[in-house]
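STRUCTURE REQUEST FORM
Protein name: Choline transporter-like protein
Source organism: Vidua macroura
Requested output: structure tokens
Priority: standard
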Amino acid sequence: VSELREWRPAIYRKCTDTLWLLLFCLFWAGLMFISGYAVVAGAAERLVLGYDSFGNICGRKNTPVEGANLSGLDMTNKKYVFFLNSCSLEIQSLKVTPLSLCVSSCPQQQLNSLEDLQSFARNNGSFLCVYNLNISSYTLNPKAAQLCPTLPVPPSKSFPLFHRCVPQNPECYSKYASVLIRMVNEMDVFHRILSGILARRDTVIGLSVLALAFSLIVVLAFRFIQTLLIHTLIALVVFGLLFVSGVLWWLHYDYRNDPSTELETEKENVKFLLGYAIFSTIVTVVLLCLIFVLRKRLPFSVQLFRIVGKIIGRIPFLLFQPLWTFLILIVFWVFWVAVLLSLGTAGTAQSTSGGQVEYRALSGICYMAWYHFVGLIWTSEFILACQQMVIAGAVVACYFNRNKNNPPPHPVLSSISVLFCYHLGTAVKGSFIITILRIPRIVLLYLYNILNQKKNAKHLFNCCFCWVCFQKSCLRCFNQHAYTTTAINGTNFCTSAKDAVSILARNSAKLASISCFGDFLLFLGKVFVVCFTVFGGLMAFNYHRELQAWVVPLMLVGFFAYLMSHSFLSVFEVTADAMFLCFAIDMETNDGTAEKPYFVDPELLTFVSQSNKLTEGRKHRNTRPFHDNDGTELQPM
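Status: completed
Returned output:
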């Protein structure tokens, strides 16, 4: 089929993969139904603000629950959840058995007697006993021991964002965290991540801004690339890798030999630092070997990115596409999390025999949560697919333009309009295929956590997980070429994918080595951003050792730095892939004569020819027999 195509940007187009677009709209109708149901039946503020054992949400006015005498109280000034026995929490039917109350402040010091409770209530206005017990009866009522917290009351601190009084005693904190783990899957990790981030949120925000600044610097370096800049970038990457690895090993040694390391969270910091140091060292060794092997291809990489930079210079608005995509993804993720919180708290309040209140989940919530989770993956992949199609469409419009000095007007806006008018269904179908591979990956992770104790199953799942990840990476590249073909011919996803594979299969020898080294150089740019952001985080967090489990926020900062750099540098990656596919099509459909002149820029044609000569020369040297200078074959001694 591909030989019969004209392979020119289609002027008259028709809608492609319409049924898939209709399916996506129906899927989103289901998401909207779940969102509406979650808002009506859920109570996300109950999870965020917390609630007591009598159904009162802390920090707001409440409505009474039938059969619960202490419900319906005004808790506007009581914003924190306090457990009467925080050191001995137990769970029965997913409910914490000790009583919990809404209090105005958490006790900062240990309280050893009922007189201390009474004094704390009078001085701070925070009543730690059940609501119907008067403050003057704390020491007089014979039932005060059952209606007041277990003595001694350990010092506690309000948990940021979730308004819980968390005991600061290491033993109590450990028990408290273990109960949270059993009550909510991996709640302890979530607890530490949030507490670590919120305790040093200014540092985390500052490091995120630093990652954004480094990403912009790398983008400008690739846009206005010169040989000196590439050498400087590689030198900085090597320096950053060696320096970060050395700092991680030094911090691990320093923390391990620190006599004040007693808390369990501090010991976990040591384990995390050892894992980071080993991983960083392995990455450093592998990248240094690759840099040494590929050092002779450096001049061609400079020329490659100079050509890509020239295309982006003709379409400067391409550099803003990752920013808009990132903002749209952030808005969607915030919406998704809000619906998930509401969905997780959807339930009916029912009073028990002791006057307490239980929230029982409604039937079908589990299926709605899985549907909502699939919506997260599919919609996120769809947004990324739209970005790829917009960039590919703009590059195609500029490549198949005879007058290179006079590019078509508004290629980005034209590509967006073509996408929304004709090819949204193609983006939906391509993103659905990625989603199909992502869901088994999540299922494998879930089964891996269940069967973590069985070694044979563990190795089997590791192999399956790696195979699924490899397939997803290959399929993502495959989708990108299909989107570019759709931007040219206006065909549906399957036809475009078949045509793209046919073209690339016949030209893989010419373009594979060039594209691979370009991707490697872009990866070095991402490593540069991550290295120096993580180095800044190491310096900032190490001076605040009182921050518990600070290595987890550091890992998140590193992940955000990689995500940010990948978002910006993906413009160069998609542009280069689309350019090479257009080049392969140009070489097959034209011959350079007056009747069929090439569309390719002369600089790109020269670059590909020189690169292929270098590759063929190396193959020839590796396969030919050894000769002396006058051409006679050397005989063995």
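Reviewer notes: The longest strand covers residues 347-351. DSSP finds 17 helices and six strands in the chain.
Form closed.
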